[in-house]
Specification:
two-stranded antiparallel sheet, mainly alpha, 62% helix, 141 residues, single chain
């Protein structure tokens, strides 16, 4: 039996309150991020003749992930605790990942890095690698 997942409004958009929980940021910062992303969507609508719906105080989850690389974030303190490493090691990991993602055009929330990027770096796990592995295992008829 296949279970269908019912998509809800909160599965599709982030409210400021959602961002507070996800990124552990202040309400003011959440509104600032949403405003910046919505302005970027407006520019895309104008330049590329797209018709993205823009909410006053919400942002599309998918668009947020595209700009911030993920929707789960770690602080230096989180890195220390989660991986049982010293502060200087956590700072180095944070710095390297932030630099790499900035070079690839992603945005950052001050003091936080995407958990997905950390796991990719530590475990050498990337979506591209997984896709390649899955493709090579596909049987051709």
């Amino acid at each position: 039996m296949i279970k269908m997942h019912k998509t809800t409004y909160s599965d599709v958009v982030f409210s400021p309150e959602d961002l507070i929980v996800v990124a552990r940021i202040s309400l003011q910062t959440a509104y600032k991020i949403i405003k910046e992303l919505n302005q970027e969507l407006e520019e895309i609508n104008k330049k590329e003749k797209k018709s993205y719906i823009i909410f006053r105080a919400k942002i599309w989850r998918k668009f947020f992930r595209e700009r911030y690389y993920d929707e789960k974030f770690l602080t230096i303190n989180d890195l220390e605790k989660k991986f049982k490493i010293k502060e200087w090691e956590a700072k180095e990991i944070h710095s390297v990942i932030k630099k790499e993602l900035l070079e690839r055009g992603f945005r950052f929330i001050k003091g936080r890095i995407p958990e997905k990027a950390v796991l990719e770096k530590i475990y050498d796990y990337s979506e591209e690698r997984v896709k390649n592995e899955n493709t090579s295992k596909t049987l051709k008829f």
